[in-house]
Design a protein that fits this description.
Helices cover about 45% and strands about 10% of the residues. It has a six-stranded parallel β-sheet, with helices on both faces. Strand 2 (about 110-115), helix 6 (about 115-125) and strand 3 form a beta-alpha-beta unit. It folds into two domains: about 5-15 and about 90-215, Rossmann fold (3-Layer(aba) Sandwich), CATH 3.40.50.1000; about 20-85. Helix 1 runs antiparallel to helix 2 (about 40-50) and helix 1 crosses helix 4. It contains nine helices and six strands; from the N terminus they run E-H-H-H-H-H-E-H-E-H-E-H-E-E-H. By secondary structure, it is of the alpha/beta class.
Protein backbone atom coordinates (compact mmCIF):
# COMPACT_ATOMS: atom_id res chain seq x y z
CA UNK A 1 0.00 0.00 0.00
CA UNK A 2 1.24 3.55 -0.69
CA UNK A 3 2.38 5.70 2.19
CA UNK A 4 -0.13 8.14 3.60
CA UNK A 5 0.81 11.62 2.32
CA UNK A 6 2.21 14.25 4.64
CA UNK A 7 2.95 17.95 4.17
CA UNK A 8 5.02 20.87 5.34
CA UNK A 9 3.43 24.31 4.92
CA UNK A 10 5.45 27.51 5.24
CA UNK A 11 4.50 31.06 6.08
CA UNK A 12 6.12 33.51 3.62
CA UNK A 13 7.16 36.85 5.16
CA UNK A 14 9.96 36.55 7.74
CA UNK A 15 9.86 32.76 7.39
CA UNK A 16 10.97 31.90 3.85
CA UNK A 17 12.60 35.29 3.29
CA UNK A 18 13.23 38.47 5.37
CA UNK A 19 10.38 40.94 4.94
CA UNK A 20 12.84 43.83 5.29
CA UNK A 21 14.15 42.96 1.81
CA UNK A 22 10.73 43.64 0.32
CA UNK A 23 10.46 46.88 2.27
CA UNK A 24 13.86 48.03 0.99
CA UNK A 25 12.87 47.09 -2.55
CA UNK A 26 9.74 49.22 -2.10
CA UNK A 27 11.79 52.11 -0.75
CA UNK A 28 14.04 51.93 -3.81
CA UNK A 29 10.94 52.21 -6.01
CA UNK A 30 9.74 55.18 -3.95
CA UNK A 31 13.15 56.85 -4.26
CA UNK A 32 13.07 56.49 -8.06
CA UNK A 33 9.60 58.04 -8.17
CA UNK A 34 10.67 60.95 -5.96
CA UNK A 35 13.52 61.65 -8.33
CA UNK A 36 11.29 61.40 -11.41
CA UNK A 37 8.38 63.44 -10.09
CA UNK A 38 10.03 65.85 -7.66
CA UNK A 39 13.68 66.11 -8.68
CA UNK A 40 14.90 64.60 -5.40
CA UNK A 41 18.12 62.64 -5.90
CA UNK A 42 17.16 58.97 -5.53
CA UNK A 43 20.25 58.05 -3.53
CA UNK A 44 19.52 60.74 -0.96
CA UNK A 45 15.87 59.71 -0.72
CA UNK A 46 16.82 56.06 -0.24
CA UNK A 47 19.29 56.93 2.52
CA UNK A 48 16.59 58.87 4.40
CA UNK A 49 14.10 56.03 4.06
CA UNK A 50 16.48 53.27 5.16
CA UNK A 51 17.83 55.33 8.07
CA UNK A 52 14.25 55.85 9.27
CA UNK A 53 13.81 52.06 9.54
CA UNK A 54 15.78 52.21 12.79
CA UNK A 55 14.64 53.50 16.14
CA UNK A 56 11.48 55.43 16.92
CA UNK A 57 10.78 56.34 13.29
CA UNK A 58 10.41 52.70 12.22
CA UNK A 59 7.03 52.32 10.55
CA UNK A 60 6.91 56.03 9.69
CA UNK A 61 9.61 56.04 7.03
CA UNK A 62 7.46 57.60 4.32
CA UNK A 63 6.26 60.35 6.65
CA UNK A 64 9.87 61.06 7.61
CA UNK A 65 10.87 61.36 3.95
CA UNK A 66 7.94 63.65 3.20
CA UNK A 67 8.96 65.94 6.07
CA UNK A 68 12.66 65.84 5.18
CA UNK A 69 12.06 66.84 1.56
CA UNK A 70 9.19 69.24 2.34
CA UNK A 71 6.58 67.27 0.44
CA UNK A 72 2.85 67.50 1.20
CA UNK A 73 1.67 64.97 3.77
CA UNK A 74 -0.95 63.72 1.29
CA UNK A 75 1.81 62.22 -0.83
CA UNK A 76 2.31 59.41 1.70
CA UNK A 77 -0.73 57.55 0.39
CA UNK A 78 0.66 57.66 -3.14
CA UNK A 79 4.02 56.38 -1.93
CA UNK A 80 2.34 53.49 -0.12
CA UNK A 81 0.69 52.53 -3.42
CA UNK A 82 4.08 52.55 -5.13
CA UNK A 83 5.38 50.01 -2.60
CA UNK A 84 2.29 47.85 -2.94
CA UNK A 85 2.29 47.89 -6.74
CA UNK A 86 6.01 47.73 -7.56
CA UNK A 87 7.67 44.59 -8.88
CA UNK A 88 9.80 43.45 -5.94
CA UNK A 89 13.54 43.01 -6.43
CA UNK A 90 13.83 40.13 -3.96
CA UNK A 91 15.16 36.60 -4.07
CA UNK A 92 14.72 33.50 -1.97
CA UNK A 93 17.65 32.90 0.40
CA UNK A 94 19.78 29.83 -0.27
CA UNK A 95 18.81 28.31 3.08
CA UNK A 96 15.14 28.42 2.07
CA UNK A 97 15.80 26.79 -1.30
CA UNK A 98 17.98 24.12 0.30
CA UNK A 99 15.36 23.37 2.96
CA UNK A 100 12.58 22.97 0.41
CA UNK A 101 14.80 20.77 -1.77
CA UNK A 102 15.50 18.50 1.20
CA UNK A 103 11.77 18.08 1.78
CA UNK A 104 10.70 17.57 -1.82
CA UNK A 105 9.87 14.03 -2.80
CA UNK A 106 9.10 13.00 0.77
CA UNK A 107 6.62 15.75 1.68
CA UNK A 108 4.03 17.80 -0.15
CA UNK A 109 4.96 21.43 0.28
CA UNK A 110 2.75 24.49 0.54
CA UNK A 111 2.87 28.19 1.33
CA UNK A 112 0.13 30.01 3.25
CA UNK A 113 0.59 33.76 3.54
CA UNK A 114 -1.31 36.71 4.98
CA UNK A 115 -1.50 40.09 3.27
CA UNK A 116 -3.13 41.69 0.25
CA UNK A 117 -3.43 38.78 -2.19
CA UNK A 118 -2.26 40.79 -5.22
CA UNK A 119 0.76 42.05 -3.28
CA UNK A 120 1.64 38.61 -1.92
CA UNK A 121 1.30 37.15 -5.41
CA UNK A 122 3.94 39.58 -6.71
CA UNK A 123 6.25 38.50 -3.90
CA UNK A 124 5.67 34.82 -4.69
CA UNK A 125 6.40 35.43 -8.38
CA UNK A 126 9.56 37.45 -7.65
CA UNK A 127 10.87 34.80 -5.26
CA UNK A 128 10.13 31.93 -7.65
CA UNK A 129 8.26 30.11 -4.89
CA UNK A 130 5.57 28.78 -7.21
CA UNK A 131 8.10 26.54 -8.96
CA UNK A 132 9.31 25.01 -5.70
CA UNK A 133 6.08 24.10 -3.92
CA UNK A 134 2.88 22.20 -4.66
CA UNK A 135 0.36 24.86 -3.61
CA UNK A 136 0.19 28.53 -2.59
CA UNK A 137 -2.80 29.95 -0.72
CA UNK A 138 -3.35 33.67 -0.08
CA UNK A 139 -5.06 33.56 3.30
CA UNK A 140 -6.96 36.83 2.91
CA UNK A 141 -8.65 35.52 -0.23
CA UNK A 142 -10.19 32.59 1.67
CA UNK A 143 -13.28 32.45 3.88
CA UNK A 144 -14.27 35.79 5.38
CA UNK A 145 -11.01 37.45 4.32
CA UNK A 146 -9.56 37.79 7.81
CA UNK A 147 -6.60 35.61 6.95
CA UNK A 148 -4.57 33.72 9.53
CA UNK A 149 -5.19 32.73 12.33
CA UNK A 150 -8.74 31.97 11.10
CA UNK A 151 -9.26 28.28 10.42
CA UNK A 152 -10.47 28.56 6.81
CA UNK A 153 -7.06 29.33 5.22
CA UNK A 154 -5.40 26.40 6.99
CA UNK A 155 -8.16 24.04 5.90
CA UNK A 156 -7.84 25.36 2.34
CA UNK A 157 -4.11 24.66 2.09
CA UNK A 158 -4.77 21.15 3.42
CA UNK A 159 -7.41 20.66 0.74
CA UNK A 160 -5.12 21.91 -2.02
CA UNK A 161 -2.32 19.62 -0.91
CA UNK A 162 -4.59 16.65 -0.35
CA UNK A 163 -3.13 16.04 3.10
CA UNK A 164 -4.97 15.82 6.41
CA UNK A 165 -4.13 18.54 8.96
CA UNK A 166 -2.96 15.83 11.36
CA UNK A 167 -0.31 14.86 8.80
CA UNK A 168 0.79 18.46 8.23
CA UNK A 169 3.52 20.53 9.85
CA UNK A 170 3.17 24.32 9.71
CA UNK A 171 6.32 26.46 9.84
CA UNK A 172 6.11 30.14 10.72
CA UNK A 173 7.51 33.04 12.73
CA UNK A 174 4.28 34.47 14.18
CA UNK A 175 2.93 32.78 17.28
CA UNK A 176 -0.64 34.02 16.92
CA UNK A 177 -1.13 33.82 13.16
CA UNK A 178 1.02 30.78 12.42
CA UNK A 179 1.43 28.61 15.50
CA UNK A 180 -1.95 29.06 17.17
CA UNK A 181 -3.80 29.25 13.86
CA UNK A 182 -2.32 26.00 12.57
CA UNK A 183 -2.80 24.26 15.92
CA UNK A 184 -6.49 25.14 15.87
CA UNK A 185 -7.07 22.81 12.89
CA UNK A 186 -4.87 20.01 14.20
CA UNK A 187 -1.58 20.74 12.44
CA UNK A 188 1.76 20.25 14.16
CA UNK A 189 3.78 23.45 14.40
CA UNK A 190 7.37 24.68 14.19
CA UNK A 191 8.19 28.21 15.30
CA UNK A 192 11.25 29.71 13.59
CA UNK A 193 13.50 32.50 14.77
CA UNK A 194 12.64 32.33 18.45
CA UNK A 195 11.19 30.28 21.28
CA UNK A 196 7.48 29.67 21.76
CA UNK A 197 5.94 27.44 24.38
CA UNK A 198 2.86 27.13 22.15
CA UNK A 199 4.71 25.46 19.26
CA UNK A 200 5.39 21.74 19.06
CA UNK A 201 9.02 22.55 18.19
CA UNK A 202 11.28 25.57 17.84
CA UNK A 203 13.83 25.98 15.04
CA UNK A 204 16.79 28.34 15.15
CA UNK A 205 16.88 28.35 11.34
CA UNK A 206 15.00 26.76 8.45
CA UNK A 207 17.81 24.20 8.17
CA UNK A 208 16.40 22.56 11.32
CA UNK A 209 12.93 22.10 9.82
CA UNK A 210 13.30 18.77 7.93
CA UNK A 211 14.57 16.87 10.97
CA UNK A 212 12.00 18.45 13.29
CA UNK A 213 9.17 17.70 10.86
CA UNK A 214 10.22 14.05 10.75
CA UNK A 215 10.02 13.90 14.53
CA UNK A 216 6.60 15.55 14.63
CA UNK A 217 4.94 13.48 11.92
CA UNK A 218 6.34 9.98 11.99
CA UNK A 219 5.83 8.18 8.73
CA UNK A 220 3.19 5.47 9.09
CA UNK A 221 3.08 2.62 6.64
CA UNK A 222 -0.25 1.03 5.84
CA UNK A 223 0.07 -2.72 5.78
CA UNK A 224 -2.04 -4.83 3.47
CA UNK A 225 -3.23 -7.64 5.71
CA UNK A 226 -4.72 -10.59 3.84
Amino acid sequence: MPREPRAVVFDLDDTLYPLRRFVRSGFAAVARELERAHGIESGAALRVLTAAMRGETRGRELQVAAERFRLPEAIVGDLIDIIRLHRPAIRLPKISIDTIERLRGRWRIGVLTNGLPELQERKVDALGVRFLVDAVVYANAVGDGRGKPARAPFNEISRRLGVAPSRTVFVGDDVRCDVLGASSVGMRTIHVGGQSCYADANAETLADVPALAEQLVMQNWSLDVA
